[in-house]
Amino acid sequence: MLQDLRLAFRLLWRTPSVTCIALLSIALSVGATAVVFAAIKSVLIDPLPYARAGELVQIRTEFAKAEPGQMDWAFWNDAQEISRRTRTLESLAIYRNAIFNLSGNASTAPEALYGLRVSANLFPTLGVTPMLGRNILPEDDQPGHPNELILSYGLWTRRFNADRSVIGRSVNIDGHACLIIGVMPSEFNFPLRRAATHTPSPYVEFWAPLGVDPAARTGALGVVARLRQGVSLRMAQEDLASISEALTHEFPATNRDHSLRMGSLMDRTLRSARTSLWLVMAAAFLFLLIGCANVANLLLTRGLARQREIAIRVATGATSARIIRQLLTESCVLAVLGGVGGYILAAAAWRVLPALAPVSIPRLAAGRADWSILAFAIAVALINGVLFGIIPALRACSTRAIAAYDFGARGGVASSGNRFRCSLVAAEVAISVALLVVGGQLLGNFVRLLGTDPGFDADRVLASVIIPSPEQYGTPQQRGNLYRRLLESVRGLPGVEKAGTIDALPFSGENHGGFISASSGGSTEQNGQITAEIDVISAEYLQTMGVRLREGRWFREEEMNGTSDAAIVNDIAARRLWPGASGLDKLICVYCTPENPRNWKRVIGIVSGVRHASMDAPEQASVYLSAGAFEKADFLVVRTNRPSADLEKAIRHAIAGVDPNQPVFLSASMRTLIGDSLADRRFIMSLLAVTGCLALLMSIAGVYGVTSYATSRRTREIGVRMALGATRGNIQALVFRQGFATAAMGLAIGTTLALILMRTLRGVLVGLESGQPRNIWIAGGIVLLTAAIACWIPARRATKIDPMCALRQE
After folding, report:
1. Which end of the chain has fewer CB atoms surrounding its CB within 10 Å, N or C?
2. Is there a contact between 323 and 393 (Cβ–Cβ < 8 Å)?
3. How confident is the model at residue 665 (pLDDT cuts 50, 70, 90)?
């Protein structure tokens, strides 16, 4: 074996050009696969950072009239009933989002933090303990006693300089003292998915006791539970379904319109990320096959060039097994070196990718090219080394090849080898065409998505999230007065054209959905129900956002009081509530139920539809209310003629001028928020685009290599043809036709394969529902154009052969 290795290294060193090309092909293909595998390992394979994570489940509520499976929350009373009645759950914990205002001092500014209020059994349910300090105790989780705080590792190191004596220290939170009782480990984060609202950090920064007053136990909460030992997920789902059905019968007033569902915490955390990552992994493996075929072509060429050496070794007694072992050793050495190079490329890529990774794909930013990725890269390279080395080795040692050399019949060997090489190249082109067509279809859909009108003018609009301290602004009047002063201060800034407030901004992740219904025949009887986004806005909010007015008028300042019945609906709600008629001056019932049937509002205007949740979500009905706009506001929106970065600083100074202890939770342009909603798809599209481009380049390199090699083997033939009167155009057409026929065959096979893939994946991937022939034509055109260039270069070179020199050389 050592002798084989020494010979392999010596032969690779003697052919540096072939060796470098092969190493580059292996490194690129293995590196691309290793990059994607590192992402899959981090997101899908590595266990969640909780004890026995496979036993953890998420409980959620699904409404009969809403799209299923989107939100992971349940009601307080339902969670308590599940905990009391379940036979399959060991423990059940609840949590809800929270924003704390951390007061500053002489050296630090006040800061708004995103975190959770949790029940005392959340960490025991997850099977984790604080790195420093202690857990939340049951006596801490009582009404009026939520004055303890557990810090995340990131907040502890950033704000408190990793000071271990921080345990037992009091900090000022929302105007009152709060005791720091613990610090969580660096790898811990819960929940792994970012909160609904955009946050300054993708990670939770604190956990505090829930401490819910029994009289105020309403609203939505997250519910996570652990299965009992020996209980399967299916058994737990059946148990929850029976509990949900019983609650519907026992409490029809509150439970008739929804049911309870359960899924594993891993599945609910990952959601669509699994499909997207496996798609990219499949593309990377196809690219790996192209690299494998390219290297096989190179080794086959070198094997034919070494036919004299192999024939002599056989004549002196070497067995076929001995020669095959030597050739496989050479290919495996080449593969291992290329695998190491691929790992180096993957490691370099993962120094950049964490900064580009979207937070909507959990744990993606934690991906690293560690030792396991090195082992994966070398293993994949070795497997490919055997695959791309075995056929050239068998061909080189075949009895027919050796006999052909002995009798001088080189043409027969070259012809047989060339057919195999052309088959490999046709397969490369077919794979690259399939990648380009499917990727082009997805990319075309994504580009159309980017060009979709959100329903408002997002340019030059900046949004800020301001959550007033509940201690200082505990009453609706105090909160409303703060927002009025903030709005007046911001309107006076240079460059601000308009400003307004809203309680749930589009693309922020906040949604305030509910049921609305129209009056029947002008009376106050309800006529059917539809779901709609229901937002409370100030007078100039819609004008600030650039929403278009279809009919009627805007809100007036005097309609901001709590008793106003004015409402504006979008054209989608108007069409659904009053088909074929105008909705102006009509009555709608908002959040109306049999228990509360008389919350009527009068429509004063109809505006264009606005996409609220995402660009690819279907347009939905929307209702805008004015009553209590400042008391319910969370978002301050301004339209400016200045750069966003300059205005953001000015807004923060204006807010500090109103209340120096009031931090700004988040400031971002609307373009940024829209871009963040597409970040995961942009990341996946980028990986697919890079893989597709590399696959095209490598397959076209294969076309060039086969055409160039075939031309070099036909030097004598070309010389004879030119001596007998063939023109340069005839020779160029002859060589070009042979290479282009291989590419055309690959194009036909690849197009068929792409159509099959699109039909198969249509129900799995968004963007393949309707095939666009234009994308197929574009992909085919790109392949044909690049293949034509790859064939034209050696064809052009063939026309420069001197027939006398060619015949003399032969």
Report:
1. N
2. yes
3. confident
Tell whether the torsion through CA atoms of 138, 144, 145 and 151 is positive or negative. Answer: positive
Contact yes or no for 216/76 (Cβ under 8 A): no
CA 344 and chain centroid, separation: 24
CB neighbourhood size of 753 (10 A): 18
Q: Is 22 exposed, middle or buried (0-12, 13-18, 19+ CB in 10 A)?
A: buried
Query: Rounded distance, CA 6 to CA 11, Å?
Result: 9
Element (H, E) at 154: helix 153-159
Is the model's pLDDT at 671 over the cut of 50? yes
- For 318, the 3-state DSSP assignment is coil
pTM of the model: 0.79
- On the CB side of 178, how many CA atoms lie within 13 Å of its CA? 23
Radius of gyration for the chain, computed over Cα atoms and rounded to the nearest angstrom: 34
| Closest listed residue to residue 660, CA positions, set 169, 101, 200 | 101
| Token pair recorded at residue 675 | 């871009």
- Which residues touch 36 (CB under 8 Å, ≥6 apart)? 277, 280, 281, 284, 687
The alpha carbon dihedral of 362, 364, 365, 370 has a sign of positive
Distance CA 415, CA 409 (A): 10
Please say whether the beta carbons of 634 and 465 come within 8 A. Answer: yes
Tell me the residue ranges of DSSP E strands in 584-655: 587-590, 600-607, 622-625, 635-640
Q: Answer whether residue 355 shows pLDDT above 60.
A: yes
Q: How far, in Å, CA of 703 to CA of 305, rounded?
A: 19
CA distance to 499, 502, 524, 552, per residue, from 626 (Å):
15, 10, 21, 15
762-808 confidence digits (pLDDT tens): 666 665 655 567 777 887 888 888 888 888 888 888 777 776 665 66
Cβ partners under 8 Å of residue 566, min gap 6:
555, 559, 601, 602, 604, 625, 626, 627
- The label of the residue with tokens 């190079």 reads 341
Nearest to 314 by CA among 428, 404, 188: 404
Largest pairwise CA distance in the chain? 106
> Across residues 529-553, what is the average pLDDT?
90
DSSP sequence for 579-602 = TTS--TT-EEEES-BTTB---EEE
What's the burial of 108, exposed, middle or buried (CB within 10 Å: 0-12/13-18/19+)?
exposed
Lowest mean pLDDT among 33-47, 76-90, 588-602, 623-637: 588-602
Cβ-in-10-Å burial (0-12, 13-18, 19+) of 338 comes to: buried
CA distance 318 to 325: 11
Distances (CA, A) of 270 to 193, 446, 585: 8, 21, 46
* DSSP secondary structure letters along 368-415: ---HHHHHHHHHHHHHHHHHHHHHHHHHHT-HHHHHHHHTT-HHHHHH
Q: What is the pLDDT of residue 150?
A: 94
Distance, in Å, from the CA atom of 704 to the CA atom of 34, rounded to the nearest integer, reads 27
Task: Look at residue 331 in the predicted model and tell me its pLDDT.
Answer: 80
What CA–CA distance (Å, rounded) separates 217 from 205?
24
